[in-house]
Each structure stands twice: as C-alpha cells, then as structure tokens.
Amino acid sequence: MNDQGEFALNQENIDQMFTYECPDSLNIALIGKTGAGKSSFINAFRGLSNSSSDAAEESVGPNAQLVEIKNSKFSHRIHNSEIEIDINFFDSMGFNDQNDTKIDSFLDKIKSEFKISEFDAIVFVTQGRLSKNELEIARMYESKNVMLFFVYNKIDNYLQDQIRKLTGSFKRNLSLDEQYFKNKEKLDELVQSGINTLCKIIDEQNVFESFLNDMKLYDSKLLKNKNYKDKIIKKSIYLITSNSEDFLNPNYSKDGERLKNEIENHLITAKLNNYNINLLDVFSQRVIRYKKKYLFSNLFNGIKLKVFGNTMVNIIPFLDTLIGNIPYINAISEEELVNELKKNFLKQFGIYELQEKLRNEPSSISSNETKIIQLKELMKKIQKDEIINNLELLIQNVNNTRSSNIKAKLKDFITKILPSFGIGLANVGDDLIRFLPSISVKIASGLLAILALLTIPLTAAIYFIFLKISFKKILFRYEEYALVIYELLHEND
User: What pLDDT is attached to residue 449?
Assistant: First the structure.
C-alpha cells in the first residue's frame, strides 16, 4: 500500500512484507501417570525394544516422574519416495494421584525449549483411567484444535490379568494369542466395557467441546446426531500394547495399526500443504478437521502482518503458499484465480479426486449404485454452494482497482461480503477484541459510522481480520462436505 492507502499487487510487496512458516516436523507430546508406559509407547511406535540404544528410558522407582526437558525429545524419521519429515515425540514428566504436578506448565517449557509454536497432537497414555489433571489439559488443547489420542496402553497385561480371573491361571506354555481366542467373547466384552467407561468420562467432562460446538453449526443432519458424536469420541481411543513385537498385532493391540497410520500418514498429510486427504482411506476421518486448521494456518497464521508503518501489505500473498505454481493475480483473470482456489481446496480435502473417479470410474469407489447417486448429488451441491461461491466476491474485493483505497474496500466488505456469509458486525466483536483489544464490541457494531476516523493501519488490520473470518467460513464448509462424504463412503465400517 502506498501513502494514499492504495494496494500494490506486486511481487516486491509480497517478498518484503510476508514470511511463511514451513512445517518440517510433527510435534507430539505424551502425557500419562507414572508407570502408564509413555516411554515404552515411544519405543514401540518407532519399532524399538526398550533395550535399544536409541530407546526412551523407562523410569522406575520413587523419582520416576522426573524428566529433564532437554532429554524429553525422541525423533522418528519418516522417509519414503513421497515425503521426508521428523515426528518428534516429547516425553513429559509422570505424575500420580498424590502429587500436584503441573503438566501444562511442563509442556509450555518444552515448547519454549524446542521453539514449538504449538503441538500437533497430544497422546494421553493411560491404563483405563484419566485424572482430573489430564482431562483439563485435554479440554485446553482440544479448544486449540490440537489432535487428541487417548491410548489405552498395556492391553496385553490387562488381558493376562482377566484370563487369570476367568480360568484361574495364565499358562506360560501357551501364547497370549492362544489363550485370548479361547476366551475371546468374554474378554472382548470386558475390553468394550472399559472403552465405554472411558468414552463416558470423556463425554461427561466435555473434552471435545470445541468440536461439539462446530457440530451445531453443520447443516448436515448426518453430522448433528448423538451417534456421530459418540463415534468421534470412540475413535479417539486406541487399544494397544507398548511391546514393540506386538504393537501391530490386531488380535489384542487392536488399534496399533490405526494409530500408526493416522499419525505417520494422515496427520502428516493434514499438516503439509501440498498433500491431500484420501477420503477413501478408512483412517482419514479424524484428520479432516485438522486439514482445515493447517490450511487456515498456512493462509494466515504463518504470515507476519505489519500494520504500524508507512506501508501496508498486499492482502493476498497467501496465493503463493496455496497455489505455488500459478502466476500471480496480475497475470491471470479473477475467474481463473477463483477456479484455481476452489480446485485447490477440493484437492486438499480429498474431494477433487473423488469427483474425477465419479466421472470416470465410479465402480472404483463403490458397487452400491445408491451410494454413487448420493455422492454425485453431493458434488453438485458443492458446486452450487453459496458460501463457497462467495470466494468470487472476496477476490473481487481484494483486486478491485476501482476501489483500491483500503477504507473503500472495508466499507464494501461490511456492506456486501459479510452479509453474504450471514455474518453481522455484532458477530465479529469477539474476533476484533482478540486481535485488536482496543476495539470494543460497541465500536465494532458502529464501524461504518466511524470508518472515516480510523487510521490506515487500523483500517487495514480490521480488513485483514474480516478476510480471515470469511475464509474460515469457506474452509468450514469444505470440511463439512468432506466429513459427509466420508460418512457416505464408510457408513458400514
């Protein structure tokens, strides 16, 4: 922006005013009581025995809860033909029912020590119970859209104990597999009872409150019922054994493969901007909303915005991150730009690939003709969706050379664009206060009246916040469609 408050859509401003944060790792913290098996979990996930030279050391004895922050990091390298990235596991200090260990402050120290803006996931390692402390941390991180994994660990030990109770002894000359299958029906019933108890605790303590609030905003009835909520909670629980030899044994370490797949493949796919979700993969459901989170982050949160100075940024440099191989806006038409953005969002959420399959090879998706018809109808609905198609209004506003003055653009945003998203000024007060504490809700609701009195930097900052709110609405709609498509594809899973 020049001194007159006009936008200059050129590469020089983009390079000068914006920096991008490129993810080079996944950062996952582990929380659990002393003896829950956090260290053995880290080892088993990486395919190491507890005696391996690179293994996380199991803590025992009276000082078991002590972990030095500098020694808390354990890396697991993912390296294949498509991707190379580190998964960093951070072992937290253990705790017990008697102490008052502040795990949240310990996690903050880890983030500070290793310069992590936020964890990508938190793994709660438990043997069937979650403490008040753990549940509070879970609620806090879920509200930040951090992925939660509740790992019911050492299921092999639990099964051995239950076999002893059922039969009078656990026979050392027979494998756990053999004895499990002899008592499978009763053991599965006991395990399911434990899962139900854990689900009830998570539900009653409103751990997934943020997600449940999102559910209320969905249009689809498929995503608003109690069964769907229960399914989401249940899928956050994983039965495993942290014995590295049996970690992927599907007989009793039932969720080892799912857990490993969701972290090593799908959470990575969600975080990296040039990788797309595969909705046909049964393990992809839980990361759909995290793809939205990372897309939004790549669009905005990684951008450092100058609002106090003689210049102001071009509002759309995120196109460089979003669509790295297309020309800048001054080299293509608005219509082409909008179409590229829509196509990119569809790809990121895994919808575009399905569209192509439905067009060219529907039998590769399903042999159920009714399901294929439902999916095709849903694709038509996406194409006509008003919220998604408001993207055209956004781009027109940003690139409107007849209204290059930032105050004129903001006025147009308030009078035309926000209403098209069903957003009133009264609804954005909280967002303005969060980003600009000096702005009150009363001022926000009367923004049009005082627009002429606002400084250029403050006007630009408010404009930027409104742009974020609008894009968040669009991404939310893509997320909802992806979740509905997943449910149609895997309704009998």
Answer: 57
CA terminus-to-terminus distance, the chain: 53
Nearest CA to 467 out of 391, 405, 404, 415 is that of 391
- 83 C-beta neighbours (distance < 10 Å), count: 14
Output the pTM of the full model.
0.84
Look-up: residue for tokens 């082409």?
336
Element (H, E) at 357: helix 351-360
Nearest to 276, CA basis, from 389, 339, 356: 356
What ranges make up the beta strands (E) of 394-450?
A: none
When pLDDT is cut at 50, 70 and 90, the band that residue 436 belongs to is low
Q: Are 323 and 299 in contact (CB under 8 A)?
A: no
Order of all β-strands in the sheet with 147-152: 73-79, 84-91, 25-32, 121-126, 147-152, 237-239
Amino acid in position 88: N
Q: What share of the chain is helix, strand, coil (3-state, %, to 5)?
A: 55, 10, 35
The DSSP 8-state label assigned to residue 259 in this structure reads H
pLDDT band at 434 (very low <50, low <70, confident <90, very high): low
**Integer Cα distance of 491 and 227 in angstroms:** 12
